[in-house]
Design a protein that fits this description.
The protein has helices at about 15-25, 40-50, 75-85, 95-115, 130-160, 175-190, 195-200, 205-215, 220-225, and strands at about 5, 30, 65, 70-75. The protein is α+β, with helices and mostly antiparallel strands. α4 (about 95-115) runs antiparallel to α5 (about 130-160). About 40% of the residues are buried.
């Protein structure tokens, strides 16, 4: 089974959370919008699901995943679907729900990170809202990043399976999609707010260990070093504007 991932071709964005799961599991997938229209891929293939009236349950936006006849949108929902298939979630209902809750919290932080540079409106350029962005980013950097990091640190500390382990996990003793997404969140924040994020990580050593350890995962490390990994840039969610890092 080859999964079809649909997301904008020039940015990591929310699609990257799904890519990391597929890559870490060694799953077969096509990053459709990055392909050629002549091969039935590219942006026209993605637009079909978003715009064509024959699609009974159209996604509101990408990312979305096509798995056979099933179309799943929203990164957290996609990972909820893929987790059991890829072996990236525990077998119990409690573990699956807890992992999903963690993913939804990560999505909350991602939304706040985006709003730090677009606090007024997504239809406006950053240059149209720089004063508001400076104020919003300051609060996000000083208050919100440390608060979220402290919570993730507590989750890692309270997981009994982490006792004596150099690489902690959010749920149980194995790598989950929530671990991968938390890695991406920290990586993105280190790009966008390197000074503020490094300060917060000093107070969250388990989170720092998770970020380092997940990044060293054999398949993931190969992906991160490959051309498949789109570099962070100022078109995506995590954007580096030095004036916002304080």
């Amino acid at each position: 089974m080859t999964y079809q991932l649909h997301y904008w071709p020039g940015i990591q964005g929310r699609g990257e959370f799904v890519r990391l799961a597929l890559e870490a599991a060694g799953a077969s997938y096509v990053d459709v919008a990055r392909g050629e229209p002549g091969d039935g891929q590219g942006l026209p293939a993605m637009a079909f699901y978003l715009e064509d009236q024959s699609v009974a349950r159209p996604p509101f936006a990408c990312p979305f995943l096509v798995d056979g006849k099933l179309v799943v949108a929203q990164a957290a929902a996609i990972l909820l679907h893929l987790g059991p298939k890829l072996g990236l979630v525990g077998g119990s209902e409690a573990d699956r729900l807890w992992t999903h809750q963690l993913q939804l919290t990560i999505a909350d932080v991602v939304a706040e990170a985006h709003d730090s540079h677009h606090p007024v409106g997504t239809g406006l350029y950053y240059e149209d809202q720089k004063a508001e962005a400076r104020r919003r980013a300051g609060e996000f950097r000083r208050e919100r990043i440390p608060k979220f990091f402290a919570w993730f640190e507590a989750v890692l500390e309270r997981n009994p399976k982490n006792a004596g382990r150099k690489l902690p996990h959010l749920v149980g003793a194995r790598l989950s999609y929530a671990d991968l997404s938390l890695f991406q969140l920290v990586d993105g924040l280190l790009y966008a707010f390197p000074r503020g994020t490094k300060r917060a990580l000093k107070k969250a050593p388990r989170l720092a260990a998770l970020h380092a350890g997940v990044g060293a995962h054999k398949r993931l490390a190969a992906y991160l070093a490959s051309e498949r990994r789109i570099p962070f840039n100022e078109e995506g969610i995590f954007r580096r504007y030095p004036e916002l890092d304080g």
